[in-house]
Structure formats: C-alpha cells, structure tokens
User: Fold these one by one.
Assistant:
Number 1:
Amino acid sequence: MKILIATTNPGKMAELSSMLDLDIDWCSLSDFPNTTEVEEDGQTFTENARKKALGYAKQTGLWAIADDSGLVIDALDGAPGVHSARFCGAKDKNRTLIDHRNIAKVLDLMKNTPAEERTARFVCCLCLASPDEVLFETKGTVEGMITTEEIGQGGFGYDPIFMVKDLGQTAAQLPPDQKNQVSHRGNAIKKLKPLLITQLLKI
Ligand code: IMP
C-alpha cells in the first residue's frame, strides 16, 4: 500500500512515518513535483487538513494524509489560530526556524495580559482521504501558557513562548523526542494509527 504524506517538509515526513511505524510505502509531495499547491484558506484546522488531504489525493490518485496546526491563545480569542504561520503577513516557508516576528506580535498583543489569563494550546488536525472522500480525521492538543519573553533555543515557530503545562519548560527547551511525546502532532498521530490500521484491514 502506498500512501502520500502531503508535505514537502522532510521533518514532518520523518516524524509521521516513524511514529506510525507501519509497513506502508510512504511518499511525500517531493515525489510529485507537478502537483498544484492546495491553498490553506479554511476557517478551521480541520477544514484545511481536509482540503489538503482530498486535494492531493485527487491529484495523485493515492490515499493522502494531510495536517494543519497552529497556536490558539485564549486571551486573543483563538488567534493566531489558522493564521499561525502568517500572523505577521506572508507565510514563512522555513518552518524549521523560530518565528521571532510572529512571537514579537503575540508578546506585544499580550503585554497587559495577566499570568492567569495567558492560557493557550497547540492544536493539530490530521486527515486521511482517498481520491473520492475523507476517510477519517484526528485532533491532538497540548496545553500551556504564553510566557512574557522567549525562553530556550530549540524547536520552531512559537516554541520559545509556549510553557508546556505541568513540565515547567517551554517547548523550545524540550529535547525533540520529549516534545514529540507530548506534542499536539504526536497526540494526533497516536490517535491516527489504530484508525489507519482498521481502514487498511478493510481493503
Ligand atoms: P503548519 O501546520 O505546519 O503549517 O504550521 C502552522 C504554524 O503553526 C507553524 O508555522 C508554526 O508557526 C505554528 N506551529 C505549529 N506547530 C508548532 C509547534 O509544534 N511549535 C511551534 N509552532 C508551531
């Protein structure tokens, strides 16, 4: 069975295929350079993940897994949310880097937000689609608090300002393995695995 992981990001590809750990011939969008980019213009993470999974499954004729993720901050009414990658404007294609401009915007918007109101979560939605239909979706979250300054050197995106609940460290301070264990993406992938196995047994 060949399944497309709808990303060109080698890190995401490696994380998904190794966490799923199934006897599947995985491929990524890098194997299909002629696909047209599916726009992430949905209002929710679920909508974007569905749109990408179905769009790329139709273009390649394969089952496709797509994800959408971001940071949801309660004090900002859910922002940056689906706009996480482009909170300051154009999307930063290099998502392996800390996005200091997006972080600065968040910290500025929250400069008067007291500690107890700085609750937030990372959310990840995953969707598996065949070329005809959405087969299933999963959602993973990780709860935390927004710090008042950047702490830690690792990770990417908003990791340095996300203090992971109960760990007392920001996502940027966690070793990658530990982050994957607790992360929104890790949680969504763990939920996806049994559903994928059930779906594969049907064919
Ligand atoms: P995408 O779903 O890979 O496009 O990610 C959307 C954006 O959400 C990223 O560019 C980051 O800004 C943010 N984001 C998603 N997951 C994480 C994470 O684990 N750490 C930090 N930022 C994240």
Note: The longest strand covers residues 134-146.
Number 2:
Amino acid sequence: MALVLGIETSCDETAVGIVDNRKLLANVISSSVDQHARFGGVVPEVASRAHLEAMQQVIKQALKEAKVSIKDIDAIAVTAGPGLIGALLVGVSSASALALALDKPLYGVNHLSAHIAVDMLDSDKKLRPAIALLVSGGHSSILQVNNLAKDVKVKGATIDDAAGEAFDKVARIMGLGFPGGPVIDNEAKNGKADGIIFPRGLSQNLDMQKHRYDFSFSGLKTAVLRYLEQTPNYKKADVAASFQEAVVDVLLTKSLAACQESGIDNLVIAGGVAANSRLRQLAITRCEAAKIELSIPPANLCTDNGAMVAALGSLAINEGLAPSQLGISADSAAEISRVIF
Ligand code: KG4
Ligand code: ZN
C-alpha cells in the first residue's frame, strides 16, 4: 500500500499521475501536440523541450489535485521506455532528482505494461490471467498476461505498422490532420462502415497458419490510398468508417481467438487506440456473444498519461519487485519483458 507519483514523457504528453494503491487521486496532462501538428507527426526535439518546460508545473498541479504534499509520496515511478529517447530522458532525470531529494524508491517502468496496468485503477477486481490487446501509436500486440509484473508472453504483434500509426497515416493522406485516431473516429460517425470493403490483413487461411495472432496494416493503408486515387468524389466519412471497421474487425477477431484458444475468458484492451469508440462498442458486443469478460480503461486513461505509470509502480511495490537503481538510463526500444528497469 503506497502513495505513488508517476511521470510519463515518452512521446508528446508531459503527464503526472498520483495513485494510492489502486485508487486514482490525480491525473494531469500537458500536451505539446499543437506544436507538432503542422509537421504531421511528433518532432522529438520539440517534444523534449516541451517536457522540460512543463514538468514542474504538471507535478505541482498533480499534487494539488491529489491534495497531498510531495513529502507524503512513498515512491516515484517513471516511464523509462520504450519511446523517444530525448523525451524519456527528461522524465527519467526529473524522477531521479525527486527520488534522490525525497530519499524514496524509484521505479523506472515499461510504458507498454503501464498501458495495461491502468486498468487496475479504481477497481477491486482480483488480478487474474488475461489476454491483452495492446494498441498504440508505436505498438500493436496480443499478449498473454499471467502476471503483469512478472510473466507476460507475446502471442503476436504487428509485422509492419502499428494500429495507431495506420490511423495517423490514413488521416494524413485524407488531409484530416494529426493525430489521426480521434479525427477518423469522429469522421467515421457519419459514414457507412460497410460502404467500402477494405482488406483485413493476415486473415486469409495461409496467413493465419503462420501469423495467427500477428497484424499487418500497411496493405490496408495502400488499399485506402488506391481507393482515394481511383474515386475522385469519395465520401470522407465512408472511407473513415470503412477503414476503421477493417482495423477494429481484425483486432477483435484475433484477440477473441487468442482468448478462446488459450482458455482465458478475460480480455483487456489498452493503449491509445483503445480510446476508439467503434473498437469499444464492437468489443462489448463480441465479448458478450463469446462470454468473455472485457475490461477497457476509460478513454482518457487509454491515451498516454501519468496515472498508468503510477499504477504500474504501485503494482511493482505490491508484487515485491525491487526498485530501480538511481542513475538508470532510458531504453527507447525496451521490450515488454523488461517491466522494471
Ligand atoms: O498510447 P498512445 O497515446 O501513445 C503511444 O504510446 O503511442 O497512442 C497514440 C495513438 C495515436 O496513433 C493515435 O492516433 C491513436 O493512439 N488514437 C486513436 C484514438 N485516440 C488516439 N486511434 C483510434 N481512435 C481513437 N479515438
Ligand atoms: Zn502509449
């Protein structure tokens, strides 16, 4: 049982969350997304500077929101990877400084595991083995989570683009702006999901033998591009809805198969793409039909935030994991197997 402050700076959000064991006390986010929008993607150097500028204020605001003093904090958790290296280093340095000054343990944690850990917050559900569909801007995988802090197995992953990346790229070619996920989600609300039949990657029989739980979204992206070139008067909303349906369909088909084939009746969906309204809706319908218990964190906790980092720090403490050494570095390409640095 501990009061944990979590710092997240792996991409363009400077975020601090505070949790008391599994209770969420504060979640403050400052995003530099507006500074990147005109480039159509996150500019690492700009993101790092924005983290430096925002950090102190975001920490202060989180303490205020949680109604706690910095001296009450029992441990500091921070995303140490994967992510943009310069951005990660701002978070790791800030967290190390705090841990040193307060003489409290430091937990450098894995960003991907943290996306899943946020699901524990404000819930008294017993932690049990689950299949996790982790879908973000840089990663798309199906994981068997026996114990999030100690035993996670990768069942499959994308062989090219991540699901979020596909949303971002398709939004860019349609001229919808950045980041693509929320704009396509919105545009799709006025379109027909079955208006255009786009390909479902790695879903044919032959592919399924070799890539049962893997994803591929680059063929889908090309199919959208070709459709746009060949259809001068295309309806943006129909393209958005049909593209989104192709992504969501394949994500859920493979995740449910992983549940059924591993005898696990519990699916967690996490990461930025888990904020997608169609994914959330179709997941409820399909899980109900398959009698699989579904957990998806609230949409604002699916995209990057500090609460997820604090949640994983808190889990590490409850599981008796040793804290990190002061002086840890960041690992931009950390694997999910590296939970604590
Ligand atoms: O987890 P996240 O916030 O950052 C990473 O760790 O990558 O995920 C960001 C990704 C972006 O690609 C963004 O377009 C996507 O999540 N995303 C969405 C939605 N909201 C964010 N994708 C689909 N629908 C959404 N509503
Ligand atoms: Zn993320």
Note: The chain has two domains: 3-119+302-318, 129-296.
